[in-house]
Sequence to fold (112 residues):
Amino acid sequence: QVQLVESEGGLVQPGGSLRLSCAASGFSLSAYVMAWYRQAPGKGRELVASTGVITEYGDSVKGRFTISRDNARNTLYLQMNSLKPEDTGVYFCKKDSGSMFWGQGTQVTVSS
Fold:
């Protein structure tokens, strides 16, 4: 049974950092494209970053966010630095190749 469990997000001040994790089970994430998406209030989901053969980032997070994976722990990470209020949203982990699968999402709020 495929599962993706994101770590708890939280409230962060502008300029701060936060690392999200996504623990995978039921498959080996090293064999698939994995990604982080986010959904801001009142907006659709947008790609934040993906990693597979190549690594890609959304324009708004380039240079600030880093996606990585620990294959031994079967876990995907998103390191977020220099956070801005516009980074606020629900962040989702996704198995983005083969049979697609979404995590449940975790709220990240950037506010002073």
The chain has a mean pLDDT of 96.
